[in-house]
Structure formats: C-alpha cells, structure tokens
Amino acid sequence: MIADILTVARKEWREYVLAGTGLKGGRMGLLIMLVVFGVFLPAQNGMEWVSSPAPLLAWSWVPLMLVSGVVADSFAGERERHTLETLLASRLPDRAILIGKVAAVAAYGWGFALLTAVLSLVSVNAFHWQGHLVMFPAVTAVSIPVFSLLTAMLAASAGVLVSLRAPTARQAGQMLSIAVMVVLFVPIFAVRALPAEVRATLLAVAMAGGVQMTLALAALVLAVVDAALLSAGLMRFQRSRLSLD
Amino acid sequence: MTHSSSSSNGYALRTDRLTRDFKTVRAVDNLGIEVPAGIVFGFLGPNGSGKTTTIRLLLGLIEPTSGRAEVLGRDVARDGAAVRTESGALLEHPGLYERMTAEQNLDFYGQVWRLAAPERRARIRQLLEPLGLWDRRREIVGTWSRGMKQKLAVARTLLHRPRLVFLDEPTAGLDPVASAALRDDLARLAASEGVTVFLTTHHLAEAERLCGLVAVIRQGRLLAVGHPDTLRARSSSRAEVAGRNFDEDVLAELRGHPHVRSASLVNGRIAMDLADGADVAALVSLIVGRGGLVEEVRRDKASLEDVFLTLMEEEL
Questions:
Q1: pTM of the complete model
Q2: Model ipTM?
Q3: Right CATH for B236-301 from 3.30.70.270, 1.10.10.10, 3.30.70.100, 1.20.810.10
Q4: B114 contacts chain A (CB < 8 A)
C-alpha cells in the first residue's frame, strides 16, 4: 500500500507540480511567495518575526493557499483530461489513489512552507545580525512544521473531496476558493459576534493555559478536522461513480 | 483456486444474464457470452449499443444491476481488484498524461504494476521498438498525433503482460492509414504476447481482420455470436452478372427460381442474393436461355458488414 501511495504521489508531483507549472503561472507565484514570506516580511519585522508566535499564522496560511491552488486538479483535472478512468482501471487500490493524491499536494505545501521558514530565519539573521545566530524559540520551531503540515493536510483533504465530484478543475477551484474563504473568515466573524464577556472568558482560558496549551489545542482540533475530511474523501471515493461521472 | 479453474475450463471470460440499467436506459440486457482464452474476441455494435458499459462491467468499474460476470476465473463483483490486476485496458480515451513524456507515462504504469526498474526499462523498449516509438520516447505525449498516442496506449496496456486486454474502439478517430497501421500492430502484438483480446469496434473490416470470434450487440442485447466465417455463412451470398439484354422477364424468371432470394437490375447488371447451395452456372444458363448476353459473372461471399447490417435491420 505504501509503495502504491508513493507511486501515485510521485506521478502527481511530476505531472502537475513539475511539468504543469509554467514560469508565468505557478513558478512565478511560488517565487513571489518565497520572496514575501522568506525575505521581505522577515527583513521588515526583524527580530519580532522570530520571537513572536504571530508569524505562525503565516506558516499556516502559506501551505493553505499553495495547496488550494493545485489540489482542485487532482481528480477533476484527470477527469477533464480523460486519464482518470484508465487510472481507475489499473490495479491501484482506492485508498492508494486517494491518499497518494492528498499526500502529494500536502507534501508540496508543507515542503514549501518549511523552505520559506528556513529562508526567513536566514533573512532575519542577515538583515538584523545580533552578533550571534538567532533561532526560533522551541515552541515556534515545533509549531511551524506541525501547523504547516496540518493546514496543508486540511487544504489537501478538503480539495480532494471537492475535486472528486467536480466536473472540471476550474469548477473545483472555484468551490475550493469559497471553502478557503469560509475557513479563514468564519472563525473571525464568529469570534467577533460573540458577546464581549464570552470573548473575555475565552481569552482568559487561553491565557491561563498558556501559549503552548492553546497551540496544542488548536493542533488537535485541526488534526481531527483533517482526519474527518480524509475519511469523508475515502468514503466518497467510489470507482463506479467516478467511472460514470 | 478460481485462477486454476479458469485455465482448465479454457475461458478468459463468461457472462451470465449480465444486465446494467441506468436511469431510463437498459445499457446491457441479459448478456451471455463466453470468450475462450487466447483469442481476439470482437464485440461489435453501433454507437451506444452498450460496448463500453460491458467493458466497465467486466473490469469491475461499475456494478451490474443483475446477472454476473466471471473474468479470468474470478467473479468480478467480488474480486474486481484481482481482475484489474491481471488485465490491461485501453478505454474510450488513450488515458495518457499529455504533459509527460512517452517513457514517463509507461514508467508510471510500470510502477503501478510493480515492475522492477530494470524490467520496466527492458519492457518499455521491447514494446516501443516494434511500434516505431522508441526513438521518440522522450518527447512530450501532448505533441503527438492521435495515431501515435493510440499506439503508446496499446503499449501501456500490454506493459505488465496481462492475460486479458480490453481494447475499446482502439482505431476510432484515426485516419485510414493510421487505422491500418494500428490494426497490423495489434494483430502482431496479440500473436506475440499470447493474450486474450476483448476488442470492441464498429469497424467491421477491423473485426474481420483481427478476430477469431465475434459477437454482435444492439441496445445491450446479444444478436449473434460466432466465428466471422460462420456468421457470414448465415447471410446469403451474392452474384452479379454483367452483360446486355437483361429485361424484366429475365428478372421475373430469376426471382421465381428456388436458388434466388432476390434479384434486381443495378446499373445494367443483375444483382442476386442467393440461397444456400445455389448453382450459379444454372442461373447463368437460365439468363442466356432467355436471351441475355452474359459478359462477366462475379460471386461474392457476404462480408461481416453485410451480416452486421442484416442483423441491425432484423432488429429494427
């Protein structure tokens, strides 16, 4: 099963990550993201970029946006290009196809986020040299890979779920964009809609638990959502439906 | 267990009252066929007759509404994954990744079927060289002609040495030259690989050229099955007489003859559909006896196309 997942994931990488992105399209976007989050923002924010947990949001946002941009193609694109049925007629198990596709895009987003994080560390040290090498605090150093992985998985699982049924990659992309907006903005509006005293209580609870506890709780919630979305994708993966769509 | 039984009974696949309904349409209707192992089996029918649906059912890609199918000794409904493992399929579309090279396409499917890297390389070469594609293996497939893509898709289908391959209208959309070239390649590959081929087509010349056994379906129902020669024998043979002085009296005489099913004057020639065992010499003698001047007589066996058209007309 692992070998099959890796086979699918390698194909995905080759097909639409490496071969499918031209300089004017995906690669230019990647370069801009790399410069903004790896050089510009760290240079502008200086030591705060390393010491504050706030940039964690950036490391969660980067894979979310990156994965959302490519995952819509996973099934809908194959359907559109008439390669899906041949893949379904192969010996590959359902789970290997689905998990392989999720893993490919999640690894893409996660890998890019980690690369940007390392570059940002280099930039902070280069532009704001303190006489010694500055590193992320332990909590941030652990949180960056954890949250970027979880948000990459979130976008990948949700994207594959949408892509499974969408007739075209464009339609899947549009649906996913709406989903990402909902994920990003609904919690903000929901918190703002809460009565002031409830918000104060929540903040107090979060502060009482400390940053670590809050982050751990957030990671747990994300992991549960990821698992639920992946399970939904596995349940929704039906060769008969996919063959006839 | 089931695997060995398929070898012993000699059939690559069998269906028993296989039926598939869609919302308002019965795509496959009580289909019962038996395909012996090692032959090229032609599955003929007009567009929309249920050929592609039948392949999907036989590969376990969709479930039957009723009935059952046994492929390579395995019940498809229970063991579709095993059937797909031992089969190869070239479906309605070539299914190639057009942004990848030919070699990358085959290499991916070689990995899917878990061929080791050295075996993949050797097998890719073995398949691409006779198809004339080896020197172009590093080209992006999207830039290729449809004929080349179809050839590559055929190579992909045979890559893992399947015991059974499904080819769904492999020459559809190709020009006559590319069609003929692919047909030659298919015939050679089928013979050299020793696989059972389940070939759907509505090109009757293709079926006649390649198939050891053909079945004809229409609206999901099996109309006839047999060797092309056997099917042709079911249809009347024809004779055409060229000459002069052919009039209605001669035609009336011929129409009344027990060896003639029908007779008509076409472009000044007498065209006759003959009954089994018809004696053409006696008919020529009859024409001459009525004052006809015979210059040339040609007798044709019915083509598979004639059989096909007759079957289609009978069903209307």
A1: 0.81
A2: 0.84
A3: 3.30.70.100
A4: yes
